[in-house]
Protein 1
Amino acid sequence: QVRLVESGGGVVQPGGSLRLSCAASGMPFSSYTMGWFRQAPEKEREFVCAIGGSGGRTYYTDSVKGRFTISRDNAKNTVYLQMNSLKDEDTAVYYCAANPVSSGFLIYASYRYDYWGQGTQVTVSS
């Protein structure tokens, strides 16, 4: 049984930082592209970033480029999201997900992700 478990969410002031983690089990972790998505209240879920199975390729939505960094440790079956310079508009539930596709536009497509975590709340507020 595949499980993805996120942790590290919380409340932070604008300009602050948080590091999210997502621990995977029950799947060949290094064979999957891992992605982070987020969903704000009354908005659709959106792609944030993703990282290829070997960690060599990363993909970011424009609004987080230069502020967020995705990484993975295949020995620990864990993917991370370092979020710096957080803004109010980053407030959302953040989900990690696993995608068997290794390249191309399907990296950005939520429907192509086979497995999802339960989400962790990130609130940016003064």
Note: The mean pLDDT is 96.
Protein 2
Amino acid sequence: QVQLVESGGGLVQAGGSLRLSCAASGRTFSSYTMAWFRQAPGKEREFVAGITWSSWSSDWTYYGDSVKGRFSISRDNAKNTVFLQMNSLKPEDTAVYYCAAEDSGGRVPSSRYAYDYWGQGTQVTVSS
């Protein structure tokens, strides 16, 4: 069982930055694929970014088209924490952001249904 707790959300002006954190329980954190999704009112939950491990290279990351070049995902395995650095924020980034985990490793699914564990979410609001 994995428990995920997000933090770092808040209100920011357009063009600003926020850093989200997701603290995970579990002894095999480093083998999990970790991801961030977001959901705005009335919209489907959207893949934002994901990070996984590989035996042949450093962590592999993958981003949704709407955040490429602005958001960056990283992880600290020693602290069982994954981060989402969000820069150049836009009003359309306003949503509840969720941390998710799945234990296959070696891939970063963009479908929400591939993930087994979810945090409670943290609100990000970007004002214009």
Note: The CA atoms of residues 45 and 66 lie 13 Å apart.
Protein 3
Amino acid sequence: QVQLVESGGGLVQAGGSLRLSCAASGLSASTYAMGWFRQAPGKDRETVAAISSSGSNTYYGDSVKGRFTISRDNVKNTVYLQMNSLNPEDTAIYYCALDLTYWRRNSYSTAAHDYDYWGQGTQVTVSS
């Protein structure tokens, strides 16, 4: 049974930082590309970042570029999202996801519908 469990969310002041973690179990996540998404109330789901299976290829959404960093530790089967210079517009539920498509493992997809497994989400709230 594949599970993705996010942690690290919370309340932070504008300008602060948080580090989200996504621990995978039930499979070797190192074989697959993974991504982080977020959804704020009343807004569409947004692709935040994505990373290839090896970690060599990454993607960032325009709204987080230069502030967020996605990384992975394939020994720990965990993907991270380091978030710096947070602002209130970053407030959302953050989800990690895993793409089972093997041929895409050396790149990534930015489309949520390409991801097969999702975590339960972790709330990030940035106060002004």
Note: The chain has a mean pLDDT of 96.
Protein 4
Amino acid sequence: QVHLVESGGGLVQAGGSLRLSCAASGRTVSSYNMGWFRQAPGKEREFVAVITWSGGTTYYAGSVKGRFTISTDNAKNTVYLQMNSLKPEDTAVYYCAGGGYILFSNTYYRESNFDSWGQGTQVTVSS
């Protein structure tokens, strides 16, 4: 497992941008699939994005594709989520996750692929 700590959340107006960071310790992000999930009030946690360790393949939820970008900085052992053109419906607690399982193109979004989770960071988008 890997220890994950998120940062970078906050309050932003619709149309604005935020960059979330997830610092990892205990394992290098380059050897782990790293993902972002989010949970809005009253809703279940949902997949946002993932980047694979094997080749840097990325997958995104349809609701964020084209607006969000996941990336890693191996030197800093950190994964980022750049969020642009934010909408009020993006308001949620965002969680960083890590996992060593093989990801398949039809199941990459499942929480069961990840065994390490951060504590979450709040993102609030005002209209």
Note: The chain is about 0% helix and 50% strand.
